[in-house]
Each structure stands twice: as C-alpha cells, then as structure tokens.
Structures
1.
Amino acid sequence: MIDAKYAEMCKMAIAMVPGIGRTGLKILELRDRYAKALMPLNEGNTNHVGIMYAGSLFTLGEFAGGIIHLASMNFTKFVPIVKEVHIRFRRPAITDITMEVTMTEQEARSLEAEAEEKGKADYRLTLELKDEKDETVAEVSGVWQIRKFPESAGHQVK
C-alpha cells in the first residue's frame, strides 16, 4: 500500500531519473520510513541468457537510498546522492525481484541534524534483493549521502 501523502512522490521518484523509468520499476509500498519496490523481469531487464540483467538489479538496489530518503527525511530541504554501492550476486534472478528498505525515526532525525550542521551526512544501507520465492538473489550494501539544498537553490522540491 502506498500512503496517500506519498502517491505523487512515487511518480516523481521514478520520473526524476529516466533510466529508472525505462526499467519498469514499481513502488509497491511506501509509508513513513519504509519502502518496497519491484523490478520486473521484462524484455528490457533480461540479459543474453534470459535472466535479469545485472544492471537492472543494481538499479533496484541503488534506488533504495533515494526512496528511503523520500519516506524518512525532509525532501524539500535535503537531496540524496549515492557515494558507493556494492552488490553480491547470489543466484540467477528468473522472476520479478523486490527489495525492502527501512529507516528509524531516530536515524532520520540524526542525519538531518548532522546535514543541517555540516551541510551533508552519510547513511549506510544493507538490503537483500529477493525473488518471488523469497530467496535472496543479490545482497546490496552502500553509502548514500544527504546534502542540504543551498538557500538559493531554485530546484528544490516543493
């Protein structure tokens, strides 16, 4: 379920990066400090041997850092960027793949306070990409960063 207050943001989160939109990625659930997304096994996400393309799996994992920012922090004041992502492929992805990501209220407020003071703050995520049998096909870990929008920034999300 997508919380009503996030309905428009779901469209924006995918549309902001055209490459994500082309994959067919779908946000299945979005509520405060929680997101679940799906990467479909479609023609555009299939590689030369008929399994999900590694880049599509990477895209789903990298998307986690941005969507959890949207559901956890003040997205009109801070913007997320990815600093590094590591992915370990465990088994072939032969179905649609999902990922779930969460952040605590305390972690979100702490990150915002640090970014308010220093202009930026790093956060780490570790997650699993799972197939329709709930088996892990890839493990993703990385560091994302929120940065404070400059006061004069005309590109802030309102």
Note: DSSP finds four helices and six strands in the chain.
2.
Amino acid sequence: MNREIKKIPLALATGAIALVLLYCLAFASTAPPQAGSVLPDLNLPVPERAAERNYLGLEGGAYFKIPEIKAEVVIIEIFSMYCPYCQREAPEINRLYSIIEKSPDLKGKIKLVGIGAGNSPFEVGIFKEKYTVPFPLFSDEDFALHKCFGEVRTPYFIGVKMNADGTHRIFYSKLGEFKGAEPFLGLMLRLSGLQ
C-alpha cells in the first residue's frame, strides 16, 4: 500500500510535465514566421503543369521545399478563396507578377507562390481560374501548412531571400492589405537587398 501511495506523486509529476511540454509545443508553433528566421520545414506538391514547374525551376519528384525554387527571392502569399481582401487584391498581385516577368532585371530572380489556407484543390482551382492567377497556387485543405506558418490571417505575405550557399532567410512577414504592385515590389527589392 505504501508503494502505491509513492507512485501517485510520480505519476502526477510526469503527467504535469507532459502537459507543460504539450502546451509549449502547441504555442511555440503558433507564432508567424519572423524576419531573420527560416521557413518551417514543409513539403509542397510539385505542380502538375509543366509551365508552373518550369517557372519554379523544379525538375521532377513528388514534393519540393520552397528553398528549392530557383530564384533569389520568393514571395509567398497565404490566401483563402473566401477572403474578401484576397479576392480584391488578386488583380493587383497578378500585376506584380506581370511587372516582374516583363522586367529583364527581375525575371527569374523573384518568384511568387500562393498557399490556399483551408482551401481544397478544387477551391484553389476556382480562385486561380476566376482571378486568372498566373503563378502557382497550392492547396492547404487540412490547414497543415497554415499551422506551420502560425495560423496567420489572410492575406499574409512572406518574403524569403535565397542565399548562394543554399540557405535562406525570411526578410518580410506581415499580415495586411496589398497596397499596390509598385510600392510592394519596391519594398521587396529594398528589404531583400536586390535593389
């Protein structure tokens, strides 16, 4: 009987430690990516369309990581097809893509991708078609990627600088309305060091 009583505090202490660890792990992943940090280690499916694979500079395989994109800067937009701001800003973000692709100094150096938080492949396809989005969009139907990014609201933009040695760093991470293609591009060029 005495042994049984001694086991109770040990079991309670072990349980309390486990709960604290779970709490810390749960809340550690809820912070959005910070400037100066690196992206969460996540996999995206290689696009089925050859044009999108070529745009991203991807060879083959089933999955890739964002730092594998052939670019000096990658701009990630976390969006939702149900977000009215995302819908309203889609034409201007498309214009950003167009400005980059038409510039001999920027084409190939800056790439855009979108991640549809909570959106199925069907919903992402509807958004892509309705707003004629020219860059790759990825479904995040189960919010797995969204959780890795700290469950941010939409639209959320992350700028990532790719380094020559294969490393990368986040230089921009903000929620907010897109204030226009030219001002945003100027900000990305300045903060990334491309300008």
Note: The beta strands are 44-45, 63-64, 73-79, 110-117, 137-140, 156-162, 168-175.
